[in-house]
Design goal:
By secondary structure, the chain is of the alpha/beta class. Helices cover 55% and strands 11% of the residues.
């Protein structure tokens, strides 16, 4: 069992090291943060969605924006589309689960907002439906996914692909990039 622990930690480190060495990925993350800081500065918001562990990431990321990541600062406008069980179950029941995020974006999204879509496979039907809905609406789209980007990659203005096909390693890197995304956005927004 100790060998399995070491093996899994080495696999995690290898993926994070590949992310750390990917300058193009870093550039995309900076663009996503700048677009988000610009949106927030102009009175718009960040909307975030994902399923399962990615739903937890969506909520975690939004909590960092609304509360704080490192330093005290004013709250930043962000909404997790994964938290309202009444909306999720009503839309899932009445329209189908593939519509749970699209319907909320239809209600809450405005030109100038940023939609941050998280899917380790890049093929989650409800994420794809949401990205398709906001295409050409003036909502900037950021995707956070795995190695291939899946079907969501061409639907995103910026797609951050983690160089792995192993879900847990993708999610570990997602969390690191989500924290850095928040940190960059804070610094760009508040000029710190």
């Amino acid at each position: 069992m100790r060998g399995l622990v070491a093996e899994q930690l080495q696999q995690s480190i290898a993926v994070l090291s590949a992310v750390a060495a990917d300058a193009a990925l870093h550039d995309k993350l900076v663009v996503a943060a700048q677009k988000t800081a610009d949106a927030l500065r102009s009175g718009h918001k960040l909307l975030v969605a994902g399923n399962g562990g990615s739903a937890a990431d969506a909520q975690h990321l939004v909590a960092e924006f609304v509360s704080r990541l490192v330093a005290d600062r004013p709250a930043m406008r962000a909404v997790a589309l994964t938290t309202d069980t009444s909306i999720l179950t009503a839309v899932g029941n009445d329209y189908g689960y593939e519509c749970v995020f699209a319907r909320q974006l239809e209600a809450l999204g405005q030109p100038g907002d940023v939609f941050f879509a998280i899917s380790t496979s890049g093929n989650s039907p409800n994420i794809l439906r949401a990205l398709e809905l906001v295409r050409n609406t003036g909502i900037f789209t950021v995707g956070l996914t795995g190695q291939t980007g899946g079907k969501m990659a061409p639907l995103c203005d910026v797609c951050l692909c983690i160089p792995s096909t192993v879900t847990m390693n993708i999610q570990e890197s997602h969390l690191a990039l989500e924290h850095i995304f928040c940190l960059l956005t804070e610094q760009m927004y508040f000029g710190e």
